[in-house]
Every structure is written in structure tokens, then in C-alpha cells.
Amino acid sequence: MSYTCSVFRAQFFKIPADKGMPSSVTIVTLIRKRLSSKGFSQIRYFSVINPRKAPENEQESAIEPPIHEDIFKSGPKLGSFRVGDSTFYTLIENFAKTGDFISLEKVFSQMKRERRVFIERNFILVFKAYGKAKKPMKALDLFDKMWVEYQCRPSVRSFNSVINVVIQEGLFNKALEFYSSIVLHEKQVSPNVLTYNLILKVLCRLDLIDRAIQIFREMPLKKCTPDVFTYCTLMDGLCKEDRINEAVCLLDEMQVEGCFPNAATFNVLINGLCKKGDLSRASKVVDNMFLKGCVPNEVTYNTLIHGLCLKGKLDKAVTLLDRMVKAKCVPNDITYSTIINGLVKQGRASDAASMSISLEERGLPANHYVYSTLISGLFKEGKPEKAMNLWKQMINKGFKPNTVVYSTLIDGLCREMKPDEAMDVLEEMKKIGCEANAFIYSSLMKGFFKKGDTDKALEIWKEAESQNCGQNEVCYSVIIHGLCNNGKVKEATIFWENMLSKGYKLDVVLYTSLIHGLCNNGCLEESLKLFNQMICEGSGIQPDVVTYNILFDCLCKNGFVSRAIDLLNCMIDQGCDPDLVTCNIFLKMLKDGMDNVEDGSEFLEQLVVRLHKRKRVVGATKIIEVMIGKYFMPKESTWEIVIQDVCKPKRIRAAIDRCWNDLYVQ
Q1: Cα distance between residue 374 and residue 387, in whole Å
Q2: Could you give the CA distance from residue 470 to residue 444 in angstroms, rounded to a whole number?
Q3: DSSP codes joined into one string, 43-87
Q4: How many Cβ atoms are within 10 Å of 535's Cβ, its own excluded?
Q5: Where are the PPR repeats (predicted)?
Q6: 569 phi, psi to nearest 5 deg
Q7: DSSP 95-129
Q8: What would the pLDDT profile of 112-128 be if each residue is shown by its tens digit?
Q9: Cβ neighbours of residue 380 under 8 Å, at least 6 residues apart?
């Protein structure tokens, strides 16, 4: 026995030199035991350079091979395997589990030199390790080497492992390319149902739903029967493309084909219908679910509750919550957060706070999302005292707020014109290690601008810049809008030019803010120039009704009636409908006698006719509402064209369907 093996035996297995070398089975067993214990590092540190001692530091060990090249001597063959093969497989398994890819490569190289037999399981373990380490390209490279370098023919199991790694990293186009190369062109592997499920998932993620359906229809021709996951994937893709009817037909088809849906299948349809607002059909799917022996689970109830909240049916959502508890489905944070958020959106923040207290009594304390939603809702409803009381209760209970909750409180205080108190909250937040974000700084700037303290707002801007939070479109928009409202248009223009020079994306809010500031400061021509710049430079930004109303008001106040009318014509041509503010501006101008050609009623009648000719039914209807509100009775001809537009057969049918849906849900 060589000196090297004696040293290995003595150091690794702790076997005295005079006891003889253990059998190969014993070696494998001992190596497995040592690899899973704290002594795993001993085999890595066994040096080929100097087998007498282990390295003294990590830097030295990093350049050494994981195992000694003389450990596994060429032994007699046992079929297609040799003594020591299983030991290599054990090393691969353990190195893959720990993500030691350097050692894995060395083991593979040594096996290749010794002409060892590679088995597919070795590669699948490494593919999974590459997936865990987020190295999809390494997995693809190893797959290419399997047969060429290591003489191990890959099967569909290896292919599925690799493509799954690629999909998990979001490389959908790469996954399709890999599938086309290996399966369709080279035909190295025959796809199974898992392969098709993965490909359908990729196609649905890429919004290639028609191609997904085509491949789905080809599956039986390839003697591959779709399973419940296949149908689920395709139905989910159809629902996201708003092709609900096709998804429902697919549910019927899978049952005809003998593939029985599970709760996840029904949940896909229920989710799609609830997002579309079709609660009537969603409830029918639930009934079908019961008929098929599927019991609704937490996901089903959460989806239905979310759908009811979206439709504003909060009372029904609470009733469904009670049914959920009676069905022994445990509500979670998502369930309660959805209902509380729905109540807040309906302006019932106090009711939401009461529900939060009752939930806490049931052993479900509020989380960060619930607290931020409640505090924000109470501030927006003009109940700052209740918001502050909720904050104090939260702190007294030992709950530690995060950046989101702090930002909600700061924003609320700034809405209440208390930016100085908000600054105190910011300092408290910094002391506990929470970092401020762009939303917090923008809220503070808004607060000080509303208070008229532009100097303090600019100080906040500088602090935001020092924290790398000020250089974004939101903060620029806030500071430009605030400076314009405080009459500092020159300073706002400097920030505007600075923003342009840094390549930030402009939007209609920014343009409107600066146009408003220029108009308020008597710079009408400059505001019109900026307006023309917005619509003529090919930026894709279109002015909205707010932008037009600012210019209408400025033009009319300065006596430029004809220019205001021309701009109104431009507005209608650009597809922007007038609103109540637009009408009031022109009606005031007519009332003041600045234009004696037509009175207010005739002006609004003409607007209705012009919008009708352009088939803008909603806009025309809104003008009729304005006329009625101003006690201007439309002519019979005007009534006739609007009623004909509103009462088209399709719209009547849709209105009837909505009524039936409301009746069914109630």
C-alpha cells in the first residue's frame, strides 16, 4: 500500500496504519458519513502537493484539488462500473448540495481522466445546483457537454431540469431557443408532459397564447396526454389575455377528456372572472366546483373577497369572510388586508380600524400594510387625530414600523400642513436605522411648499440629493410644481432645464405645472410656446383637459377669445373632451359680454353636435349633463341624437346584463 493511501486512511478515516485498508463499500460509507459531518472540510484540504499535512489557511487550500488523485485506484470492473465510482457520485452529490462548483469541475475532470462512467443523475444534481445559484448559462453549457465530453446521453429528464433553470431566471426567449434546438431540430430527446407544461408556461408569459394553443393541440399527436397542470397553465394564459370564454370552454373540454380539475384549476377561472368584474359567472364556477367534489380553499375565498372589494361590495365581502371561517378555511393576512383596503377606498377608514381591532382580538394582529393603509385612509378622510391615536397604539403594542409606515405618517402630517412635525418623525425614523426614500422627501417638499416655505423645501431637496433620492421624475415634478405655485417661475425653469439636461422623462403633469406657473405670472406667450413644444416635438405626450383649461382661463382673462376658440377646436380634434370646468370658463366669458355672437345654450348645443359627429358619445353626454345643471334645456334634435347614441342595441344589452349580474350577486 502506498504511503499516500496510508496517510489518507490515517487522516480521513482515523484508522491506524497496521489495521489494513477497508473495503470499497466501507470507504463509500465512511466518506458519506464524513461529508455530512463537520469534518467535510478535511477531504477538501487533503493536498496533492504535500499529502503529509493539511493547508494552514484558506488561500492555500483554494488552489488545491478537492481530493487526492491517488485515493481511488483503478480497481476491477463490476459490469459497466468500477470500484470507486459510487464514491465519486457521492462527492458530486455533496458538492452540488453545497454549491461548490470549483470542486465539482475538478471531480468531473478526474472522472474523465480515469475514464469513469458518468450517469445522468450526476448531471441532474448539478443542473439543480446551477438553478439554485442562478447560473442558467452554466446549466446550458453542461448540457451540451454531457454527450460530447462525458459520454452520457441526456434524456428528457436532463432537458427538463435545464429548461426549468432557464425559465426560473426569466430567460423565456432563451428557453424557447433551447427547446427548438434540442427537441424540434436535433431531436435529441422526446418531450413528455412536463416538457410541454414548461413550454406552455413560457409561451403564456411571452403573450404568445395562440402558439401555446397550437402546441397544446399537437400533444395528442405526439402521444402525450395533457394533465391538470397543462390545462391550468393554458387557462391562466387565456384569462390574462381576457379570453375568459375560451378558458371556460377548456374547463369543459378537460372533463370530457377524463382529466378532472382540482381546486387550482377552478381558482384560475375564478380569479380571471373576478378581475374582469364578472362576479355572477365567478359564483357559477364556485357552484360547479362543489358539484365536481372540489372544496373551495383559502385561495378561492381570497380571490372572491378581492373581487367583491373591487366592485365595492364590502358588506358581501365580510359575509363571505364569515362563510370562509365556518368552512374551516383559515383567513390570512391577505384576506384581512384586502377587506381593510376595500373599506378605506370607500372612505370607511374608521370601520376598517374597528375591524382591525376585532381581528387582533381573534389573534390576527395587523401587519405593516394594514397600518399604513389605515393611517393613510384616516388622514385622507380628514381625521388626523384618529390617525395619530392609531400610531400611538401601534407603538405602545411594541410594533416596529418600517419605512412604508413611516412614509405614510409623514405624508399625512404634510397633508395637514404640519411639515415641521413630519420632520421630527423623519429624525426619529433615522435614529432607529430606517432610511428615507424619494416618497418621504417628496411629501416633505409638498408640505413646505403648501406652507409657503420654499427655502425649507429647497433644503429638503438638497438633503434628498445627498441621499441619492432626489434625482428622479417624482421629486423634480414636486419641486417644479411647488416653485410655480409659490410664484418662483424663474427658479422652476432652472430645475426644468436641469431635468432636461440629465435626460429625465417628462410627462403631462410636469408640462402642466410649468404652464400653470407661467400663466399665473403673466407669461402667456411663454406658456403657449411650451404647450406647442409639448405637442410638436414628437415626445408622445398629449395635453389633458387640465392643461387646456389652464390655457383657456388665461386666454379668456386676457381678452384673447378667438385664440381660446381656436385652442378649443384643437382640443376636440386631438380627442380630448371638454369637462365642466371648460364649459364654465366659456360660459363666464359669454356672460361677461366678451362675445355677443351666441349665448351659453347655443355654445353648449354646438359642442354636443361636434362631439356627436366624432362619435364621442361619453363627451356629448357630459355636456348634456352640464346643460341640465345650468338649466339650459337642449333642443329636441340634440336630445334625439344623444339618445340614439346612448341607446344602441349593444349598449342596451350590456346595461341589462349588468343589472342581472347585480341582482344575481345580491
Answers
A1: 8
A2: 12
A3: HHT--SS-TTS--SSHHHHHTS-SS-TTSS----EETTEETTHHH
A4: 15
A5: 192-226, 227-261, 262-296, 297-331, 332-366, 367-401, 402-436, 437-471, 472-506, 507-541, 544-578
A6: -60, -40
A7: HHHHT-HHHHHHHHHHHHHTTPPP-HHHHHHHHHH
A8: 888 888 999 999 999 99
A9: 349, 412, 415
- Secondary structure percentages of the chain, helix, strand, coil, to 5: 70, 0, 30
For 394, other C-beta atoms within 10 Å of its C-beta total 20
Q: What are phi and psi of 493, to 5 degrees?
A: -65, -35
Closest CA to 589 of 550, 625, 546, 557: 557
Q: How many CA atoms lie within 13 A of 74 on its CB side?
A: 6
Query: 61 to each of 47, 56, 58, 95, how far by Cα in Å?
Result: 8, 8, 5, 16
HSE-CB at 173 with a 13 A cutoff on CA atoms is 0
Instruction: Name the DSSP class of 185.
Output: I
CA dihedral 642, 648, 653, 657 (to 10 degrees): -30
* Torsion angles phi and psi, residue 552, rounded to 5: -55, -45
Measured between alpha carbons, how far apart are the two ends of the chain, in Å? Answer: 87
Query: pLDDT digit string (tens) for 352-406?
Result: 888 888 878 777 788 888 899 999 999 999 999 999 999 998 998 888 899 999 9
The amino acid that residue 21 corresponds to is M
Question: pTM of the entire structure?
Answer: 0.63
Phi/psi for 223 (5° steps) reads: 55, 40
User: CB atoms < 10 A from the CB of 468, how many?
Assistant: 9
Residues 470 and 464 sit within 8 Å (Cβ to Cβ): yes
